[in-house]
## 1
Amino acid sequence: MKRYFHNLGEKLIEGLITISGTVTSITVLLIVFFLFKEGLGIFSQSPVAEGSVIAVHQNNPVKELKAAEVKEIFDQNITNWKEVGGPNAPIKLFSIDDITDYYTEEQIGANFEHLPQRLNELVAQEPNMLAFFPEEYLAKDFKGHRIELANVSLGDFLLGRQWYPTIQPAVQLGVLSLILGTLWVSLGAILIALPLGLASAIYLAEIANPKVRNILKPVIELLAGIPSVVYGFFGLVVIVPLIQDVFGLPVGETALAGSIVLGIMALPTIISVSEDAMRTTPRAMKEASLALGANKWQTIYKVIIPYSISGISTAAILGIGRAIGETMAVLMVTGNASVIPHTFLEPVRTIPATIAAELGEAPQGGIHYQALFALGCILFLMTLAINLTVDFVSAKKKENR
Amino acid sequence: MAFGTTSSSHKSKHLAQSAAFFIFRLLSFSVVAILLVILGFILVQGISVISWEFLTEMPREGMTEGGIFPALVGTLCLVAGSMLFAFPIGILSGIYIHEYAKDSWFKRFVKLMTNNLAGVPSIVFGLFGMTLFVNQFGFGDSILAGSLTLGLLALPVVIRTTEESLKAIDDSFRIGSLALGATKWQTVSRVVLPMAFPNIITGLILSIGRVSGETAPILFTVAAYFLPKLPTSIFDQVMALPYHLYVISTSGTNIEASRAMAYGTAFVLILIVLLANLLANWLRRYFGKKVKMN
């Protein structure tokens, strides 16, 4: 009997342990599920600003416009209907604030009670008008027709250069500048961190005596432990003004500031991963090299570095991964202008910073909210690709041995 | 003549080595210098702000005066909550991967997923925590939602620490215990875990330092911009130190006037990390000696 309970307890514990083992897998699957569930919603929503109507005269042949075209029209870069597939006639813009140009306050009514009817008349009178007004003022017997905006396509989303998620009358959700901004800042970070990190790793693994090692190791651990918001704060009060002074810029919040901060943050990862890789070089190989008359430095760059090159590339990839996903520090020092970067001395905006800055203000379930989740999907896929590459590289390394 | 050439090539060989080693040493110490500059700057600027009042009073005057008490309490709640979740599950999960799982596709899958979870950016945890805990489960912006999100973020670290610590225990101990008739769980709980305990606890302390400074996961799950009162239940919103630092250094009502408060907050955050690291190092040394004495 006692033995039976013993076995039962053993089985229960094993079950509990197995369940705990699956928690991470379940979490990853849930992250994928929720991220994509919200994010993919962007492709089935109209980019017209919520609660608004874009309408034209009923004889106007233009039935559908793209969000980008609407913005061009309202920015007056497109001024003729033929540019968007209509007749050769100038586009007459109308938004709700212009109503007083056409009607007196009396005609509209003190509480706007006649406004729907007036809008109806106006659109019916003006064959070349593109009217934009709140949906609540749409008359029941509206004679014009509403312009449908094409839903955002994957191509528009990934390759669009304009990120204006709250603009009227049609939101612009192109994320190319955000993706390039993220990669640009991360590239700069790795250019700064890789030489510094590799040199430190070589020094720690092969040159330093144990005493120095015992000082350096905790230092690197501490660098890894400093919160990103503190790095961001340091960047904001020290690095940003420094860059502004040195390069004589109007603002110091630039891609360079982000790269420097991210470079420092990526250092611990790069150092510890590549140091570990160098330490796995078999002693026999090192000693053979030394016995052949090579000195220590020749052994390092002819034997140890080639041997551990896959570990070193893993370190670099992981460093990039850390930089791509970093949020707070970047948000605080890069200036967050959503433009395609050309130099390191201009502000950029990254994907994580965009999510952190805008999610709080995006109404839940709206297209802006879903666009931010879609950005989260892109970020997730980027880091997933990085992790899988790392797994692949280290699996290959094991195979080669 | 031949002798002369070898000698000069020997010389240049030696010179190259000296030059390379000098550069490596220089770059390594510049890493130390970077850390010292960051730490030194924040500690020097922050120390004058720290006082008993700063640590125990509510923020006042648009967060330019007073203290950080609610943020401090909030961060403590979040750290405690996330660890309550991440420690047991993480340690059991580590035991599963290293002691129980058979070498199958499932174990490889679990390991792959754990690695992937470790690489997921913290802001994505924030998005996920908001959809699942805040909206789906209806916890709202609360300590519970924030703690669970932070706990998930810490999970891979705890698992990896446990796994590494278990790996360091020689198999002969397990075989010996099993040979004496102990069951698997008896072996794990009475032989393997006690031996791995020092390393596990060291890793856990370091992960506490990390969690206390995380900002992105709590942005949309718990952190309050300004809430000068203490939480009364796990369904309350709280202020948190890292978010407070972000707020007063970038978007507060008067950024210049709250600079001193920002230095003080950064100081406290650094102090938490420093203490966690010192404690971890001390434990490592303490247990290291003890093990050697046996």
## 2
Amino acid sequence: MTAMLASSNPLNHVVQHVWGEPIKLADSGVFSTFTLMSNQIFMMVLAAFLLIFFVIRAGRRRRGNSGMDAMVPAGFGNFIETICVYLRDEVAKPALGEHTDRFIKYIWSVFFFIFTCNLLGLMPFDAVAYFVTGMPAKPFHLGGTATANIWVTGTLALCTLLMMVFNGLRLGGTAYLAHFCPGPLLMAPLLVPVEIIGTIAKIFALTVRLFANMMAGHILLAVLIGFATSAFAVGMVTGVGVTIPVILGSVAINFLELFVAALQAFIFTFLTTLFIGMSVNVHHHDDHDEHGHHEEGVAHAH
Amino acid sequence: MQNMMRITKNWMMTAAFLATASQALASDSGEAPNPFAGDLGNAVWTLVIFLIVVVLLGKFLWGPILNGLQSRETFITNALRDADEASKKAQAQLAEYNEKLDQARAEATAIVEEGRRDAEVTKRTIQDEARSEADKMIERAKREIGIARDSAVRELCDLGAKMATDAATKIVGRELSAGDHERLIRESIDEITARSASRN
């Protein structure tokens, strides 16, 4: 029984499963291994494949080739363009102002990449493969949420940091550097580290928010289904009795997860936009404060 | 009864399905998994894949979409501006037409007024002329009547005088001299004149 419970640890269904052996870089430490391929990396590749080969085609569809029709999207293109227009007009323009169109392609990419990864994470590839083949998906675990990996979300957040710093220096120049010391110069030894820590904290929060939200939902589902496993270990009647509410609950949680997948992709995109906006519009101190509070509000809300 | 059997069969199948599913999900074993599992490989893969996505989507999808949005914005802005201009132009034209219409109406009123005035003047002239003509005719008629009357009176006086003379001659039996004639005639004329004057 103990072995059974240990083996059905819900985390097992959420964490990364490496395909093959990772390359060993060092004996110990965070950077000691290098995973060549895993279920989560595969899902990321799949997300990129879908985006590149299907979403591009769908997004470019227009009602006609000339005149007014060439400006009107058709079919799935409407869905993509609606999101694009919303992100551009309601998210990017208030934060980035004149720089909106300079960064909007990156912002759209962030949203659609994370959204696709989040959605693919909800697909039960592993279970489907099992039911089709009748064999456990080993050694290759299929499926998995790429954004439930802190290294993935960390890298994406790092990209945001690079965008902030690089564009802050490029467009803000000395004003961006001066932004790190908002008070008198004497206070610099105190303020500069605080500002740097603040920037890193933002990126860290960005990393953990997406990672934790995606991880938590899947753990919840795994725990729920774990109840069914344990109940079947006791007996068939108990198993069925427990499993029915578990299934209903799982369906409900899956709907919630669909919402969370979109919401977290939006929040990551929204905050990335705000952070870039704060970096490139450093002369707007009022905006900075406003955005800062706004960001804080959003962070608390979720 | 058949329903009961069908329900039981369905339940059995569901149970078997769930048992298999839970077995599949419980198939992992080994050491406790690390929720932060991952390494540099994940980061590098993420970076590479994400950059490829950013570059390719940026070139083949976001570029056209952004161009489309911008051209649509320009199109709409231009259309709105054109519509605004057209509206202003139409309003200006309407004002111009209204002004012209007012002018035309005023001119028409003036023309009608002038016509009426002319007609009035003409009428009055014609009336005056007619009246004056009539007055003249009346005057002339009166004058002619006066002349005729005077002539008739004179003839009557002459005739009366002649008849009186003849009668007197017959009565008196003697011829009056030319001087008597003259005196008698004058007296008769004066008497007739005085009588007709007193009658008038």
## 3
Amino acid sequence: MASENSNSKSVTFENVTKIFKDPQSGQDVKAVGGVSFRLEPGELVTLLGPSGCGKSTILRMLSGFEQPTSGKIMIGDNDVTDIPPNKRDTAMVFQSYGLFPHMNVSENVAYGLKLRKVKPQEITKKVKRFLEMVGLSEMSKRPTSRLSGGQQQRVALARSLIVEPSVLLLDEPLSNLDALLREQMRVEIRRLQKSLGITAMYVTHDRVEAMSLSDRIIVMRSGLISQIGTPSEIYRDPVDTFVAGFVGKVAFFPCKVNAIDSECHVEVKGKTFSTPRWSDKLKAGDTALVMARPESLSIAEPGAGIENGVVTANIYLGSSVETWVNTGLGNVLVQIDNPDVKKIWNEGETVSLSFDPALTKVLVDDLFAHPAAN
Amino acid sequence: MKKRIIHFSLAILFVILVGWWIYSSVRDEFMKQSRDSQRRTVETIIAGFPSEPQDIEGWLARLAEDKDKNNYTAAFINEIPEPGKNLSETPKGDSELAKLLLENSAWDTEFTKGFEYASYEEIYRSVNNWTVGNKEKQALFFAPAVSLKTHDIEGVLVFAFNTDGEQDFMNMLHMLFLGAFILFFLVTWQLMVSRDPIVGFALAGLFLMTLTFIAYPLFEAVRLSFMENGRFSLSIWKTILTTKGYLSALWGSLQLGCWTATFSTIIGFMFAFVVSRTNAPLKKLITTMGILPVISPPFSLTLSIILLFGNNGLITRWLRVIGLNFSIYGLPGLVIVQTMGMFPIAFLTMTGVLQGIDSTFEEASLNLSATRLKTFTSITLPLAVPGLLSSWLLVFTTSLADFANPLLLAGDLKVLSLESYIEVTGMNRLGHGAALSLLLLLPTLTAFLAQRFWISKRSYVTVTGKPSGRITELTTPRVRRVLTGIIFTIIIILVMLYGTIFAGCFVKNWGIDYTFSLENITEALTRSRDALIDTVTLSAVAAPAAGIIAMIAALLIVRKKFFGKKLLEMLLMTPFALPGTLVGISYILAFNHAPIILVGTAAIIIINYVIRELPVGIEGGIDSLKQIDPSIEEAATDLGADQATVFRTIVLPLVRPAFLSSMSYTFVRSMTAVSAVIFLISARWYHLTVLIYNFSENLRFGLASVLSTVLIIIVFTAFGLMRLLVRENANMIKNVT
């Protein structure tokens, strides 16, 4: 689809910090500590992280509701650090939608245009077009209270998009919807964002949402950026065990780095492997962790693999079976694709695990720094 | 940011310089004018210096006679004094000035210079200001006394000019420029540095308002109670705390408060218990009648009690026939009237408390085979104790602050609110009045603190958000019959009291001639026309002002973080605890002199209404806003609305019920105000309630009845209208959260 929004702009954060004062103790709390990144025009970037990691604060600083303690925020070439929210060319979709309860659907959508003193006929035309776009043409005169959650979400979306902002901001917009609707809306949001060619920043703590929507993901932790990358980079090539654990299920095998050349050669339980990816902080002789995703693990007879364990559960999902194996490393999830043509091990059977080294990455052992994500 | 601060500093510097230049030229020009006019006065006077020495004394006396018209005193020295030598004789004329001259002529350089000027037939004005007798800040003029006949200098005429006018003008000038500068500073600061200038302006406005119209008058009242003859002194407080009359007023107030609070709480509890804990019939009626007196105008119950039990009352007559002689004026009558008027406060408080107590507790007790009485005494009552205490305290403070009822019914009983009114209007002892009404604040503050720090900590009422529709029946049918019997007796008495006022409208001359007549109605309506229009106008102006300010204040308090929020909140809520008499007295104290003179204007009455009814409106606004998702307002801001637009298009429609009830509350309270407004009315701006009081004082009960009825009709219409408008909103509000 052709890009409708020619004025979509980049967003730049330069070393932005935000310090709050804790109202109880009066102490300073660093919500965001020195963050820099750049969104390209038309790109959808997700801020992903556990609650309290500062992702919402970043979004609120971009929209202008919070003012950074230090640093600089740019939209396009304009420094907006000191610009109040109503003068910024951003539009936000709120977690609780924030629909105006005393206005009906089309009044809600028209609000931003009225403020911009657009002519009434034009407003009517545009509101009609945007309601069509989100599939709510029939409901234009309804009070927002008589809409379902998904419909309210669409109103909020239309209300933000109609003012043709340079940047669209979405603050966990799907967290109030049920699972099925969430998947639908995810597709919908992505479709609208792409068709309008609008720069978008999306905040969520749901990794599946982040993976399926984003051009790029910013993984955050304790007010700092852990990693910025495309969904596949983040999944396959995480910078540390935190990112590895946060963006997907994972098992870690302790290992020793023997040598690093064009590959990383490690030794796990006396067996040697070579993996194509490794953390560049590692050097030969370090103890480290081999990170393996469920689909890179496989189950074999006891003794054949690296780690022995007992099958505790089998979850049949149609296209795959998830087998949980209790090992000395904890409960490990193994994904067996095409289960109908593969051997499935019964609960209680003793088995051994092995992994496909081509799909793994060797990471610095920093598990003591945080509890394993699984 | 740095650049802006530099711009800001430069702008301020520029304004300071320009301001200083304007200020000093205005000041110099004024001083020059003032001195020139004094000099001209002196020239005119000395031109009339008598030629014969024996006429001098008479001439000086004539000058002194004019003293009230002229702002100077004069003295004549019969020689040209020489430096270092004492005067040979006491100067003639004003004795205080003569004394000053005797003391200073010999050695003070200014005096020497003055005499020297006089000897050259010139006029000299002292550079310093002098204290002459008890008059401070006098400018001295030394002028030659030239005999018209001989053209010789006979001596020196000395004039002491009062510079109070100059001082006042200078003070005003200082205030003006300081104020203008502060205003400029704040506005510029907001515009240049803040991202949210509208919020800044609103905050500055609120702070200015509370400081000017709440903190400043209170401060003035406290200050005046510690002043005597312009100096700090404890004498007023000493007098008040040792004079028997004042102490008996304190005692009277406390007695009245205790009795009223006790009876009101008992009756209120009965009403509340029957409504929220039994299956008694006609609960709607009981509730309505239990709330009614709260909005009934002052004087109405007093008036009907007087009509029935007064010296010429309907029932008094009958009782006299059977040989009973009594007077309703005094403590018993007041307790009855106040209880009738104030038990609704206890009823409302107790209903809230009883409904907050989960019936499951009582069910559990009954289930464990406790009797109903045992359940009531061991479960319901203990849980209700904090509520009982707080409703007692609330009625107690209301009774203490009550002014309207004692005004008509106190008889020989002395109470503080009335005593402070008499001090101010009868004796013109403002300081004593202020001190007495401050004394009234003491029990109120104690009650408030007790409520805040003691009772609220012992409250077991829990808000579950799930009102259980079930009521555990705790009364046997017989107990229920007794309770409803008492309640309906009270309701019937209330109806009778209101009926009496209504009947009073149509009777020729109550107590003497009970024939039907419409004369009172026509006379009352013609005589009260202006007052009625004034009252409605002032209330109608105050209502929207209070509503809007309350909503803005609530919005800022709930949604914004700013420095001094606690202080602002406290100041805004203060008038809630202030007795009306104190507010009235402190307003006339604060606003009858510079820098703000408002006494006698409509503004002072309106401001008083707004300030006094703000706390209730703000509370309502805060409660309402706390239920509204902040992201609704943020969404509007995000779409490009500035704070004022957000307030107008989003907040105000959403808090409409709170806004409307704040408005109607202010309107009704303003229509029925007495205690503060009685100090503030003027010939131009009068109040209906004061007129009712005047008519009652003059025993024109018919006229008073008509006006009371009119007030009741207006008040009920206003409330009805508000209910109607709010109901319209009900659907929408359900979905705000």
## 4
Amino acid sequence: MNKNNTRQAFMRILSYTKPYRLYVVGALLSAIISVALTLFNPILIGRAIDLMVGPGQVDYNGIFKIILILGVIIIIGSIFQWLLTLCTNSLTYRTVKDIRIEAFNKLNTVPLKYIDSKSHGDMINRIVYDVEMISEGLMQGFTQFFTGIATIIGTLIFMVYIDVWIAILVVVLTPLSFFVASFIAKRTHSLFTEQSSTEGDLSGYIEEMIGNQKIVKTFNYEKRAQDKFEKINGQLYDVGVKAQFYSSITRPAARFVNAIIYASVGIIGAVSAISGRISIGQVSSFLIYANQYTTPFSEVTGVVTQLQTAVASAQRLFSVLDEEDEIQDSPDAIVVTETDGHIDLDNVEFSYDPDRKFIQNLNISVKPGDKVAIVGPTGCGKTTIINLLMRFYDVDKGAIKIDGVNINDMTRNSMRSMFGMVLQETWLYSASVRDNIAYGKPDATDEEVIRAAKLARAHNFIERLADGYDTIISEDGNNISHGQKQLLCIARVMLVEPPMLILDEATSSIDTMTEVRVQEAFTTLMEGRTSFVVAHRLSTIQEADTILVMDAGNIIETGNHKELLEKGGFYHNLYNSQFATN
Amino acid sequence: MRKLMHYLEDFKKEFILGPFFKFVEAVFELIVPLVMVRIIDVGVKNSDVSYVLKMGGLMIALGFAGFAASLICQRYAAIASQGFGTKMRNILFEHINTFSHAEIDRFGTPTLITRITNDVNQLQLAVAMFIRLVVRSPFLVIGSIIMTMYIDFKLSIIFLIATPIIFTILYLVMNKSIPYFRLIQKKLDKISLITRENLSGTRVIRAFSKQEADMERFHEITEDHTATSIEVGKISALLNPLTQLTINLAIVAIVWFGGGRVDSGAMTQGQVIAFVNYMAQIILAMVLVANLVVIFTRAVASADRINEVLDVKTNIIDGNMNAEQASTESKIEFKDVFFAYENASQHAIKDVNIKIKQGETIGVIGATGSGKSTFINLIPRLYDASKGDVLIDGINVKDYNVKELRQKIGVVPQRAALFKGTINENIRWGNEEASEEEISKALDIAQATEFVNGLSQKGESMVSQGATNLSGGQKQRLTIARALVGQPEILILDDSASALDFATDAALRKAIKEQTKGSTVVIVSQRVSTVMGADRILVLDNGRAAGIGTHDQLKEENEVYKEICLSQLSEEEVATS
């Protein structure tokens, strides 16, 4: 990660503030006003002090006038200081909100390939934790930046106004701060990057171990997991101590530079006062200004480290944002509203890894209403067919056609809505049972939902749940069993009544008695509907119109159960091996 | 917060020396304005340039000394805070590892992760800040007040009035904002949850074209989170302006009353300047205190969330009996066992009795929710029976050392989960010291040798996190090998061949039967074909044992089993099998 990248990432974060320019202007104005007023204080105080030379030489009237003005200035200054914080708050929170939403939205537009290949824990970490880091960095950055700029310019003007020579001295000494800042920043940046990547490793590991806690326990892996965790944690400690130490010396270092500037101004100021060039009150004002002038510089060093953490986090987030989206639907893409259910795969070629050819020259033709069972050994490409049919992945060559139209020429959403899909890995989201069933049709009436649940044979168990259809499915859906989850997934499809079906080993975890009923329901649903079933169940295979026997990415046999058995080929062996142990 | 204090004990040295050096720095800082007073009142008054230079040199020397002291302090702060954070993470992870599944469920994985990472980070920051500022800020405030008392007691009354006002402001702002911080954290958890759901449900979401709806859902919670953050921002934004206002008004008072003191000859001009300087120093210290307050409020919220985790004690406690004393009458025995999940109204397992002999293969079949998974989870004591006893080798599982108990048992879970690392590392989960031969034997039985050898790195090939680079069937076979490599006395297969094709499934069962003689095998399945070869079959129905017997017995006598058979096999096959 070089300097250029850091700058780019930083500029990119800033580009997200554009919609909130009003807050930027508000913050800047508030900063200028509050700083200007704050800076005016020392002058007034200095003047007041000059009016009290010694016993019997105090001008009460003059002091009173000055104090009145001072009071008003202080109050107005405080109000603008408050406005400044309000503006930077809104600016920061809204900016990071946009970044966070964009990152999340990205997850929904990238090709599935990306999501399949990334650790989910790491992704969550980016969207939750990294965004918080950016937020903290920006908050610090904005506040310090606005007041900093205003303070530096303001104090310079006031100092020049009091005494040009001492002002020049202060300006000449300023680069010291910069030198210190850049020295420290260089050291900390790489440490912070290392720290946040180690943190990513750690949370990835926690996710793995806690998420699979039953396995950890049954294998007595706790001790080993702990050792490995402590090892990563130890690495985090090593880099953490270094990163924290280097970043934490910024303030003391800046204070040190300030102390030197303060002392120099004090010495020169005192000598100038002796020579009578300036008054004692002016020396007092000057000391205050010198302090205030250098503060933004020392704050900058602190902010720089904070910003570095933010930029490191932003870079991790931007790497998500920079992923390429799925190829957009072309503007003249067809919106499919109905289909006969005629599907053709013409010379389809596809591989996950370009170096390892997988599906080659695949041809399937499915008539409307056909029930197609796909069977074959593990890894033969059954799931891949689903990925291609649903256009989760795009074919490399050839075409998949619905009613003779290439699916790449249809809008993805309309094409996918032609299919009802039930996968082996059930997925429900944390919402009520009703909302989960009505997922594909949010405006469904209660009657429709219940009807679908009844068809999927889920109604009975739902009724037995504590809150019936209003039961909230907890985070991982652990309050209902795996089979019940699958019933809900089936009900979800039942409700939308799609023209075609894709079932991926869908019924493998449902108990057999329910399955009989589910099969009946499916049979009704499948009537006149083209369906693809990846199945291991004999009953499903036996009822199929066509069985596609796959091996190593190719269809090696097609036909119905009876034909294939008679053929005495691969399917014959596969089928017979089921009873090999008996 | 207090509860976590004793974890800080290891860092006593840092906790004493760190603040001490910070204190030294603060003392030097406090002396500087005094030196300035001398420069003005002595040097300038007497036009003594050499005195001014001497004193100026002293100020610079003080700056150097202060810098050195603070470097030492920061070093200690880094060691103590990072050390504490590292220790807390280790303790939390270890503690969570003792949880049973029910306890993990109560929190959910995402929030446990944020607690180990984010919340510990907050505490870490608080510790660092504590060491850096705990002495410094109050010392600067109190020190400044004492200094001013020393210069002019009457005028210092202004300080004595201003300080309590400032602390009241601090208290009020803090008090108002704490509940908000908790709320924000909760909303952040929700953001994490939705992200997680979105990632795991990508396929379903896209199949239903619900991307927009999910984005909308995320949008809403994020807006909500932002709104709450801005809301609390409004309150905490009051802190600085209000304290500064108080301090500035105090300065006005100093100037006004200072004028009177100078007039009466009680004070010099230089002393009034010093007063104003000390007030300025208090402003700076106060700003830091305010930061400290914000950090501590967050830390308190985080500490609560961490304590919530640490307060949950697992109910699975080691028994003290030694496994050596085992009898061999029956390998596994369920005696009048009942089990209900937390908050469930019904028992998942009701009055189950079964004796399983050493070396026997038992099939478990039954409807969804009939209690199959619960039944097998009771064996390695992932849960404790609510009533009745589960015995292994004649000894109640509760009396075992949990580790020894689980050593006897190899489980192949329903969901084939593998871990980031090489294939061999994954297999070694089952037996840390497994040799090459043992691993290859396990792979053989699990029917995984062929595909593992087909990989470029063979057994040293990497499995990615979540094993996304393997197919379902490949994962399942590796989980089987993982269970076999420990040569368990009891092998439990929880519906673990669902992603295997018929041929592989059959070959697998055959290999297990031949290669693991002497092991007791429990096979849970939905497929009759998988369990029908077992010595006996346990039929579960709604938590009860509806029948125990061989395939032939059950298909004649047991209604439930008969129905299952008919749904899966043709009439002819039922008759001839």
